[in-house]
């Protein structure tokens, strides 16, 4: 395996059929499961504090399909503001770069030698802010005004927690993935509309910030809203709260495109879908 950054090998696995979505490629939640596992190993090796994938910025560059081998290399990096991250680079068979994720480090990390993020531009934030997500104060008001929708209600199970009792990042991202479909529906890109045109919804960049870990038995409610529309990209946000108490658990954003399922290439968003985004 060739890693030009001299980072550490932290994960190797094979893509399974049940990890793939309606586009017949690896779903975003299973990218983040692999990044979480890679971050956990790196933290154990180096005695670093914190939980993997509590705050992350991920860029998707290439599809992964059934039977592909996912290999992750990890190294510490530092942005221009001095914030430290673990940079996870997911590759196909150790060679072709498929995805990068910046796993934010918290607490003190004495002795950790980090490379400047400017040396690795393919991992730097591009279409989404590089700072932690600012949560919406009143999602109920957004829903009532029609500017947002409730896009996922789900029950937290013991299996959703990791070995330390923390909510696993991929379960959070699973909710985001469900909300992505509804976010596209908000602008008219329903499943029948996309099927007629042989189009698929694809995320190219995603952020997540977990503010608290729900306990098993909690019922979660996710609210999604449109943020910005461009010729080829659609930006939307998600927020996850307790459906009973309103406790804030997580928030994030996604930058998404439409992909021609025949050519596997991005296409411009049809003009009829590019109505003004609700304020």
Structure, described:
With 279 residues, the chain is of the alpha+beta class. The protein has two domains: 1-124, Hotdog Thioesterase (Thiol Ester Dehydrase, Chain A, Roll), CATH 3.10.129; 126-279, Thiol Ester Dehydrase, Chain A (Roll), CATH 3.10.129. It contains four helices and twelve strands. Strands 1, 2, 3, 4, 5, 6, 7, 8, 9, 10, 11 and 12 form a twelve-stranded mixed beta sheet that branches. β9 (219-229) and β10 form a beta hairpin. α1 runs antiparallel to α3. The longest helix has 19 residues, at 28-46. The radius of gyration is 18 Å and the shape is globular.
Summarize the topology.
Elements lengths: L7 E7 L13 H19 L8 E6 L8 E10 L5 E9 L3 E9 L10 E2 L22 H7 L2 E8 L13 H17 L5 H6 L2 E12 L8 E11 L4 E9 L5 E13 L4 E3 L12
Parallel strand pairs: 3-6
Antiparallel strand pairs: 1-3, 2-5, 2-8, 3-4, 4-5, 7-9, 8-11, 9-10, 10-11, 11-12
């Amino acid at each position: 395996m060739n890693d030009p950054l001299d980072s550490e090998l932290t994960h190797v696995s094979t893509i399974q059929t049940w990890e793939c979505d309606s586009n017949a490629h690896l779903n975003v939640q299973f990218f983040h499961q692999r990044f979480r596992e890679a971050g956990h190993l790196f933290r154990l090796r180096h005695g670093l504090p914190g939980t993997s994938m509590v705050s992350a910025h991920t860029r998707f560059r290439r599809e992964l399909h059934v039977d592909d081998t996912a290999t992750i290399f990890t190294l510490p990096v530092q942005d221009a503001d001095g914030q430290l991250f673990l940079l996870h680079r997911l590759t196909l068979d150790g060679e072709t770069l498929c995805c990068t994720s910046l796993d934010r480090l918290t607490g003190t990390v004495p002795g950790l030698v980090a490379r400047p993020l400017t040396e690795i531009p393919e991992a730097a934030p591009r279409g989404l802010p590089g700072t932690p997500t600012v949560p919406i104060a009143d999602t109920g008001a957004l829903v009532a005004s029609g500017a947002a929708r409730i896009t996922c209600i789900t029950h937290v199970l013991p299996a959703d927690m990791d070995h330390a009792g923390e909510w696993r990042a991929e379960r959070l991202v699973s909710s985001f993935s469900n909300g992505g479909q509804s976010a596209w529906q908000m602008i008219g890109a329903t499943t029948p509309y996309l099927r007629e045109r042989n189009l698929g919804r694809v995320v190219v960049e995603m952020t997540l910030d977990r503010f608290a870990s729900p306990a098993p038995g909690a019922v979660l409610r996710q609210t999604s809203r449109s943020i910005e529309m461009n010729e080829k990209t659609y930006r939307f946000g998600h927020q996850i709260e307790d459906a009973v108490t309103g406790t804030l658990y997580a928030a994030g954003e996604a930058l998404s495109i439409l992909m021609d399922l025949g050519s596997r290439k991005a296409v411009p968003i049809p003009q009829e879908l590019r109505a003004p985004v609700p304020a």
